[in-house]
Design a protein that fits this description.
The structure holds 2 protein chains of 2 kinds. By secondary structure, chain A is mostly helical. Chain A has 4 helices and 3 strands; from the N terminus they run H-E-H-H-E-E-H. A 3-stranded antiparallel β-sheet of chain A has the order 1-3-2. In chain A, helix 1 crosses helix 2. Chain A is globular. Helix content of chain B is 52%, strand content 20%. Chain B is built from 4 helices and 6 strands; from the N terminus they run βαβββαββαα. In chain B, a hairpin with a 2-residue loop joins strand 5 and strand 6. The longest helix of chain B has 33 residues. In chain B, 27% of the residues are buried. Classes of the chains: A mainly alpha, B alpha+beta. Chains A and B meet through helix 2 and helix 3 of A and helix 2 and helix 3 of B.
């Protein structure tokens, strides 16, 4: 019944940042702002792209709708990670860490051999 | 000088960029879009440097309101609608494009192709009957089947044009 979170990897950079942003419930625009900030302006998310990504991640059950943002602004739907979404982010972090370690080690070895 | 202007223009589904550039030119001349599609209506205003973008979506009702709200938050004003086509405008140079990666823009072409494919299927049986036996039926039915044949040819052309765009986008990384 429980899928292996690694089945969802590798994530695109946009998907990873969106999932990371949704560790806390957020509405769409807040996600766009966080993604821009965290990537130092490198990754800009357009609303069409974001909406498509949110729909896909919902379909994959990695995120779900949280309660609406307070104040009754019904257009501001909030999203948040599901349990599986959380595990996928953890798995991707582990994969990226291992990759970074391997890369640095390989570069070090090259220097020693020379 | 009158307050409104009307223009009739036909743009194919894969000519969205051409249509956007024309609307932007109109805005520079002080004409701002109020409704579009094939008959376009503009209202007089200040000359402005804006971006127009066309989008095609299958969402409606609640989901569409959410999408439009998200675009508004990003700085894009929803100014007009023509079936599934949505016209957006922004004066904010910092507003990101609606689609910021090739994959999601490719999805837009895919949606259009899916719509045209449905229309194609609906018309293909009439076209097949005409091509098979032109002149076999009464005048009215023949005329209808002839029109359907024309529609089918146009749809196939449109699907091929959109398909080429879609493929090019999908190969981009």
């Amino acid at each position: 019944m429980q899928r292996d979170p690694r089945a969802y990897l590798p994530l695109t950079e946009a998907a990873f940042l969106i999932l990371a942003a949704l560790a806390r419930p957020k509405h769409g625009y807040a996600i766009m702002q966080d993604v821009a900030e965290w990537s130092g302006g490198e990754t800009k998310l357009g609303p069409g792209t974001l909406y498509g990504a949110l729909t896909k991640l919902m379909g994959q059950k990695l995120i779900r709708r949280a309660g609406d943002a307070g104040g009754g602004d019904e257009r501001r739907k909030e999203y948040v990670l599901t349990e599986m979404g959380r595990r996928v982010v953890e798995a991707e972090c582990a994969r990226l860490e291992a990759a970074a370690r391997l890369g640095r080690l390989a570069l070090k070895l090259k220097e020693v051999v020379r | 000088m009158s307050e409104t202007k009307t223009a009739v223009r036909f743009y194919f589904a894969w000519e969205a960029e051409k249509e956007e550039r024309w609307l932007e030119e109109m805005a520079r001349a002080g004409w701002h879009l109020t409704s579009g599609g094939i008959v376009f209506r503009f209202r007089r205003g200040e000359a402005a440097e804006v971006r127009y973008r066309l989008d095609y979506r299958n969402e409606h009702g609640e989901a569409l309101r959410e999408y439009v709200g998200l675009c508004r938050d990003a700085g894009w004003e929803h100014v007009a609608r023509f079936g599934g086509w949505l016209y957006f405008r922004t004066a904010d140079a910092a507003a990101p494009e609606l689609y910021t990666d090739a994959a999601s823009l490719a999805e837009r072409y895919k949606r259009l192709i899916a719509l045209l494919a449905v229309l194609l299927v609906v018309n293909v049986s009439g076209a097949a009957r005409f091509v098979d036996h032109p002149g076999r039926f009464d005048a009215l039915r023949d005329a209808i089947y002839l029109v359907q044949t024309g529609v089918v040819l146009l749809l196939v052309y449109a699907i091929v044009m959109l398909g080429l765009r879609w493929r090019r986008l999908r190969m981009e990384r």
